[in-house]
Amino acid sequence: MKTFNCWLRAFAALLLVSGVAGCAVDFPKDSPYTCEVEADCGGEGYVCTSLPNDGPKYCCLPEPEEKCNNVDDDCDGQIDEGIDRGSDPLNCGACGVACTAEQACVEGRCQLRSGTP
Amino acid sequence: MRIPAVLPVAMLALVLLARPARAQEQGLGLDLSSDSSTQQSPEQPGMGLDLRPEDEGVSLTPRFILVGLDTPERAGAQQASVWLRELAKGAVSSGMVAFGGSPRDVRERLENRYDATLRCTQAACLAEPAEALEADLLTTARLSLEDAGWTLRAWTYDRDRNVVHEDVVSGRNPKDAAFQKEAASKLGSRMMALARPRAVLKVSVNVPTAVVKVGERILGVGSVEARLPPGTAQLEVSAEEYAPFTKTLTLKPGGREQVEVRMEISGPAPEGPEDAVARKAAKGSGGTPIYKRPALYTAVVGLVAVGVGAMMGKSAKDVASRATDADGDGMIDVTRKERLDAQSQANLATALLVGGGAVTAGSVTWLLVVPSRSEAPAPTGTVSAGAATAVHVVVGGSF
Questions:
Q1: Where are the domains of chain B?
Q2: Residue range B199-265, CATH number
Q3: B371 in contact with A at a CB cutoff of 8 Å?
Q4: Is residue A55 part of a domain?
Q5: Fewer beta carbons below 10 Å: N end or C end of chain B?
Q6: Taking CB atoms and an 8 Å cutoff, what residues of chain B touch A7?
Q7: Chain A residues touching chain B at CB-CB below 8 Å
Q8: How far apart are the CA of A56 and the nearest CA of chain B, in angstroms?
């Protein structure tokens, strides 16, 4: 069995080399990928959209509604559209700045409502 | 007067050298033995023609067999024996055929197929009886009353060409000798036209179990000798575990062809006493050629898989190397679809590399470690009690 053991070793070595040479590839996960058309995004709900002001196109996964986060959540090419930071008591002046129940958001500032003691 | 001594010595020598008669050997004064070989058979027509079947091993003359005479009318049936004798004489007198058997012999050999054969006029139904009777020319006849009067029809089946020829003779009545002679003459002419001397083919094979075929006909097993129709024939010799042998032969009428066939091992070792011969043949020919071994082709398939895998892997790696924000616009410079495709390619490439590598390595191991056929230990005269059982596992093979 000496001969066979020799070849068995060679066989195992070849298997190992094949495994090591396996083509594992690594791609960035947090960065958006460029695109030209919808098909470039590979489906799975991704759409090809562009950043505001005719910025570069990228693949985007839309969320049901736009939130105030300086991100284009619904992938329509606009950021935080529909949120008025000058009057939205939940995002008054900046995203995440909420006014109290006695306050109103006026020109991006939380101010006591009139008639409040 | 003195008698010379040489005279009695010469007489004694004569007495001793002379062969005694057969009957005298048996102690009889007269030869009263009933050895049929020394007497003419009572069935023989007394015309000086020997209608007994010839020795098949020697004669190259085609075998002629007269199946019989179908006689629907009683008047014809009464003359059937005369007609059969005349027809047989007519055929044999051509000098081109050998009488292969009387109607009585044919009836015994064909048994329940005899009546159908007697009334058969087509090659389709005469071929099988001719094969069974080993007749090269097979004739069946009918004597009946037709519109033109008494008519004899003879159908002669030519086994070489698988065709039937019909001869028709009409006469006044079945007893008419001229009618009989004309029919016999016509059958004789037919024999002269159809008969072709046989050729003898002798095939010597080194494998006793080899099946020897010529065309579709199996001549026998091992070394055989056979009478065959002249012409072109395809000789095929085959045996399990041996490479088949084929050769196209041109057999000349009356010729003798001899073929020496030396078959060589082509597959796993046969069991039994031919082991030694097989080993010798395998050693002599250097074993099975590598292109006949399946392992070569599985190795090639494995290498192709490795090659394809490497190409796909390289392509995936190229995409991965481009997956950066080289222009600084905040976007990775490959599309998401390219990324997904590259990942799929990478996975497939890994599978092909590992699988192909395994197949290649296994095949190469099969080719190099396992011989083309097992070299089982040669049998010896004595077997020790402690080594009474041995198991040989053979993994190999060839196409």
A1: 63-194, 199-265, 290-369
A2: 2.60.40.1120
A3: no
A4: yes
A5: N
A6: 364-365, 368-369
A7: 3-4, 7-8, 10-11, 14-15, 17-19, 21-28, 31-36, 39-42, 46, 55-59
A8: 7
- The range of the structural domain enclosing residue A63 comes to 28-83
Neighbouring C-beta atoms of residue B26, cutoff 10 Å: 11
State whether A92 and A58 are in the same domain: no
d(CA B391, CA B375): 13
Chain A nearest-CA distance from B371, in A, is: 12
Query: Is the minimum CB–CB distance between B359 and chain A shorter than 8 Å?
Result: no
Task: Give the CA distances from residue A72 to residues A31, A32, A43, A95, B129, in Å, rounded to whole numbers and listed in that order.
Answer: 14, 12, 19, 14, 96
Chain B: give the shortest CA distance to residue A81, in Å.
22
Domain covering B63-194: architecture:
3-Layer(aba) Sandwich (3.40)
pLDDT tens over chain B, length 399 residues:
444 444 444 444 444 444 444 433 333 333 333 333 333 333 333 344 444 444 444 478 888 999 999 999 998 999 999 999 999 999 988 888 888 888 888 888 888 889 999 999 999 999 999 988 888 899 999 999 998 889 999 999 998 888 999 999 999 899 999 999 999 999 999 999 998 888 989 999 988 889 999 888 888 898 998 888 888 889 999 998 888 999 998 888 888 889 999 888 875 544 444 444 444 444 444 556 777 788 889 999 999 998 998 888 888 888 888 888 888 888 888 888 888 898 888 889 888 888 888 898 888 888 777 655 444 333 333 333 333 333 333 444 555
- ipTM for the predicted complex comes to 0.73
For A97, other C-beta atoms within 10 Å of its C-beta total: 17
Half-sphere exposure for B235 (CA within 13 Å, toward CB): 26
Contacts of B316 in chain A (CB under 8 A): 23, 25
* Residue A93: both structure tokens together: 């002046």
Order of strands across the sheet with B256-261? B224-228, B199-205, B256-261
